[in-house]
Amino acid sequence: MEKTVNQRAWFLVIPVLILVAFSSIIPMMTVVNYSFQDTFGGNDFFWVGLEWYRELLHSERLWDAFGRQLLFSSIILLIEVPLGILVALSMPKKGITASICLVLMSLPLLIPYNVVGTIWQVFGRADIGLLGRALSDLGISYNYSQNAFDAWATVIAMDVWHWTSLVALLCYAGLRSIPNAYYQAAMIDQASRWSVFRFIELPKMRGVLMIAILLRFMDSFMIYTEPFVLTGGGPGNTTTFLSIDLVKMALGQFDLGPAAAFSLMYFLVILLISYVFYTVMITADKDEAQS
Amino acid sequence: MASITLENLAHSYHPNPGGDDDFALKAVNYTWEDGRAYALLGPSGCGKTTLLNIISGLLTPTHGRVLFADEDVTASSTAARNIAQVFQFPVVYDTMTVEQNLAFPLRNRRMEASYVAERVGRIAEMIGLQADLKKKARGLTSDLKQKISLGRGMVRDDVNAILFDEPLTVIDPHMKWELRTQLKSLHREFNHTMIYVTHDQTEALTFAEKVVVMHEGRVVQIGTPKELFETPAHSFVGYFIGSPGMNFVPVSVAGNKARLGDETIKLTHDYGNPNGDLKLGIRPEFISLTKGVGLPVRINRVQDVGRHKFINAALFDTEINIAVEEGFEIETDMTNVILDPDKVSIFCDDWRIDAQSAGKIDGGAT
Question: How high is the ipTM of this complex?
Answer without folding.
Answer: 0.75
